[in-house]
Amino acid sequence: MTRKPTSSDHIVDEKFEPWERNGRMPLPVVWVAVALAIWGTGTLLTTSGGAPETAVEAAVQQDRPVDAPDSGAALFAANCATCHQPNGSGVRLAVPPLRGSEFPAQGPELVANVLLRGIDGPIRVDGHDYDGHMPSFSAAFGDAEIAELASYVAATFGDRDDGVDTATVADLRARAVGQGTWSGGEALAAAYPGLPPQPAFSSASVTPVSADVSALIFEGRDDVWACASCHGDLGQGVENTPRLSGLSADYIAKQLRDFQTGTRANEHMSFVAKGLTEADIAGLGAYYAGLSVPSTAAPILGGDLKRGETLALVGDWDLGVPACFSCHGPSGFGVAPNFPALSAQQAPYTASQLAAWAGGHRANSPLSLMDQISKGLSTDDRRAVADYLASLPAVPAGSTGAVAKEGDGHDL
Amino acid sequence: MNRYLPLALLAFGILAFATLMLVIAPGVQIARHSVPPQLEPYTEQQARGRAQYVGLGCVYCHSQQPRSPDQAPDGERGWGRPAVAADYVYDQPHQLGTMRTGPDLLNVGARLPSEAWQLTHLYQPRAIFGWSVMPAYPFLFEIKPAAEPGDTVVVLPEAFAPEAGVVVARQEALDLTAYLLSLDRTYPAPADALRDEGYATMESGS
To answer: Could you tell me which chain A residue has the CA closest to the CA of B157?
Structure first.
């Protein structure tokens, strides 16, 4: 302990070391510290509840089948009504009606069978012939959901109240493995004798592509990379490389010509397109239009799928944005030649094209339609609608199929 | 200096605390996470290509860490989902990078899966993008009068092709391309993944 200097002590001790007793902390500082501690603990408790979940994951989970299936009516409204219409009237010449159709009247088992396998071939419904292209929903729905949906459709449009249970659907699913799609109404009529006569299925519509075009797609040329090397062996696309299979031949040809002339700007495609002849362009269009490939797209941008669905189905007139499907066809299957298919398109591609229209980097839309629409959409809206469209089943193949030799490249 | 011991103890305590919070805790946190089943270790060729990537200094202009949608439109650019810690399990040292003079490359193998495209672009980026500022890497290639069997010929437009002969990729270019094509982290992030949350958590209020 050092000696304390006193007033009587005139001689300063040379060993003296100055020191100070601990002063009391001012009370306001204590209050602030206590308040900060309470606030910090409170924040910690309110924000650390459970495992954090990103928007992307939440979006993916929304799309996943849940244990308790939605009711048949809700499933129908969300998945079937975009093509078959909410009242089941279908679309004239394009989508067969369910109301007045002979098929639901055959019972829920047939409906479940069609949902599981899809249809690819001509079909006669209520006296009219359709180019039947129904996607398979076996990957999208669980057995319980298929059972709910099939029972609902058969009851509503076929007056069949007998319903189908989950076990029967599971059995049908097991038997459908490896069967592929129903080849039109004829195959269905063979399995269900109660159906009226159906048009014959013919596989002769397949037109082979020329060797030149096949080589271009899978091997490339001296001055052109192979199409498949970026767009995939089946034209399925990835990330912001677009899916090509199922786009109309005219649309593909127009885009290739626009790349050639510079009307549509993209460095990769300008490089490729300048080496193409008119015959190449026609061959490529026909090839990709005829491909029927399951969707490889997924909602990966973290967009709000509900908002995307609203934009696609009804649009948002406050923003001056019409429904996507009003021009691009039911379920975004595309309307040739000017409106490309949107369903199952890679989400990053759709979102980046919307951004390109809004920013003026892409300006080859007929009548500048897409320029105006894209400008109305916010970044979140673009992401939402791109994700929703990526979650839809792939566009069915056009009626003019084409077959090319598959390359040795990557698988899907 | 008559309180040497408390001072030393305090200094040691601070260092120990920092080591615990900055080294040991993150180590424990990361070690609990398993390797994504879809992520393959690099093959020998890809590893050689990775050495080229490091040696050529690609990391100075290219990052390998896509960000969350709340921070940047990386998803729309096709650069992939936000990266998670497990994506880098085979990368030692990682090539995260801090500069984005060029695009992010963590998913370049998914985004640009064409070997022919990559070779053209490495030989002369300006052959594709007239405005590109990326250096050309002609020393990874050689010009031959004619391609021999087994040679990989580079696709080039006339303006960038040599006056005579063809441009053939050397082994280094093929290795580097193999590495670039192996950069594909598009599989879904594991549910328990450590990730860049961005501001998503705060905005969604969870």
So the answer is: A223
Q: Are A195 and A189 in contact (CB under 8 A)?
A: yes
Please state, in angstroms and as integers, the Cα–Cα distance from residue A365 to each residue in A350, A357, B34, following that order.
14, 9, 47
Which residues from chain B sit within 8 angstroms of residue A302, using beta carbons?
68-69, 75, 200
Q: What is the CATH number of the domain that holds B164?
A: 1.10.760.10
Q: Where are the domains of chain A?
A: 67-191, 207-294+398-403, 305-390
A50 at the B interface (CB within 8 A)? yes
User: Rg of the Cα trace of chain B?
Assistant: 22
In a domain, B63, yes or no: yes
Is the omega angle on the peptide bond into residue B37 within 30 degrees of 0, that is, cis? no
Q: What is the CATH number of domain A67-191?
A: 1.10.760.10
Looking at domain A207-294+398-403, its CATH superfamily turns out to be Cytochrome c-like domain (1.10.760.10)
What amino acid occupies position A287? Y
Distance to chain A for B95, nearest Cα, Å: 22
Residues A217, A234: Cα–Cα separation, whole Å: 10
CA-based angle B190:B195:B200, to the nearest 5?
110
Distance CA A309, CA A314 (A): 8
Structure confidence by residue, pLDDT tens digits, B75-133: 888 898 888 888 898 998 899 999 999 999 999 999 999 999 999 999 999 999 989 99
Report pLDDT for A49: 58
Contact A152, A72 (CB under 8 A): yes
Enumerate the β-bridge partners of residue A122. A131
Distance (Å) from the alpha carbon of A287 to chain B's nearest alpha carbon = 20
Neighbours of A197 (CB within 10 A): 9
ipTM: 0.80
**Cβ distance A286 to A336 under 8 Å?**
no
B86 in a structural domain: yes
The CA distance from B157 to the nearest CA of chain A, in Å, is: 6
Contact status of B126 with chain A (Cβ, < 8 Å): no
Nearest to A302 by CA among B198, B85, B185: B198
Residue pLDDT, tens place only, B131-154? 999 999 999 999 999 888 888 899
Please indicate if any CB of chain B lies within 8 Å of the CB of A269.
Answer: no
Q: Residue B94: give the domain boundaries.
A: 44-189
The CA distance from B141 to B156, in Å, is 13
> Does residue B198 lie in a domain region?
no
Q: Which residues of B touch A347 (CB under 8 A)?
A: 75
A67-191 matches A305-390 in fold: yes
Please state the domain count of chain B.
Answer: 1
The CATH architecture that domain A305-390 belongs to is: Orthogonal Bundle (1.10)
